[in-house]
């Protein structure tokens, strides 16, 4: 089956505005805001005690509030945010793939430890894949190809309970014949998300210490949209959105009735 980029984007947008999606937008917003505060704190601690250009202060070089913690505290906060967002990420995939009507604890906790281990393994594998970028031009082309081919691996780990290696194999097989279209889908998403974040940054950046919240909200929504669009594309290629019939398709495209049991 060929991927329809427009349909995937349309379905993704519809999914990202449902009642189930909105709590995830809020959660993603919270994590984005805390990550922004952590980044501001990190920059502030690095600049602490250093000579700054005349007329500039630490506040001018940070995008949000600064927490009263040191670099060690910032590192710990980053780790906690990464682990916490992992649970949100897998729950988001599961909610869209399972097409649930409401959030449940099972979305966050089902085989969470196993999924976490396989996500770490996937991250290690992806790190080595990313090393191809050291080769100018050709390395970037190969990297983009591999990212596209492995597009659905995180989804397979989160929603289909695959191991890291199995998820990579399944994604490679599923994207075969559609990698150029998937690249186009990813390009459109990155372009739109980039423009939206740039506009949000320009508008909300005019309000010190508060504007970062607006940027975090936009980033949070596009995080959910990314997953929603990925699931929409996945269901296109797996045929999960195909109509269900009581028979099998014949060569002419019709439905052949299947024999049924007769009570004796």
UniProtKB/TrEMBL annotation:
Looking at the keywords, is Lipid biosynthesis present? no
Q: Which UniProt keywords apply?
A: Membrane, Transmembrane, Transmembrane helix
Instruction: Outline the segment boundaries, as ranges, of region: Disordered.
Output: 242-264
User: Which parts pass through the membrane?
Assistant: 21-47, 67-92, 112-131, 137-159, 180-200, 206-228
| InterPro entries reported in the protein's UniProt record | DUF7847
| Presence of keyword Transmembrane | yes
DUF7847 domain spans which residues?
3-237
Coiled-coil residue spans = none
> What's the protein called, per UniProt?
DUF7847 domain-containing protein
């Amino acid at each position: 089956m060929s991927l329809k980029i427009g349909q995937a984007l349309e379905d993704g947008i519809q999914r990202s505005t449902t009642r189930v999606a909105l709590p995830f937008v809020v959660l993603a917003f919270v994590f984005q805001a805390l990550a922004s505060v952590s980044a501001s704190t990190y920059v502030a601690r690095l600049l602490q005690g250093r000579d700054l250009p005349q007329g500039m202060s630490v506040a001018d070089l940070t995008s949000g509030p600064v927490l009263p913690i040191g670099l060690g505290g910032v590192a710990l906060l980053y780790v906690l945010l990464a682990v916490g967002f992992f649970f949100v990420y897998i729950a988001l995939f599961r909610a869209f793939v399972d097409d649930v009507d409401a959030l449940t604890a099972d979305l966050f906790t089902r085989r969470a430890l196993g999924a976490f281990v396989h996500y770490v393994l996937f991250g290690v594998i992806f790190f080595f894949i990313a090393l191809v970028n050291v080769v100018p031009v050709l390395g970037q082309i190969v990297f983009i190809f591999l990212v596209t081919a492995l597009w659905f691996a995180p989804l397979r780990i989160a929603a289909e309970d695959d191991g890291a290696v199995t998820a990579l194999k399944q994604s490679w097989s599923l994207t075969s014949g559609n990698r150029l279209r998937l690249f186009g889908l990813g390009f459109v998403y990155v372009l739109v998300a980039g423009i939206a974040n740039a506009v949000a940054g320009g508008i909300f950046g005019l309000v010190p210490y508060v504007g970062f919240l607006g940027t975090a909200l936009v980033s949070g929504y596009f995080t959910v949209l990314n997953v929603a669009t990925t699931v929409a594309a996945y269901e296109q290629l797996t045929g999960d959105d195909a109509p269900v019939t009581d028979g099998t398709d014949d060569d002419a495209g019709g439905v052949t009735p299947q024999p049924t049991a007769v009570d004796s």
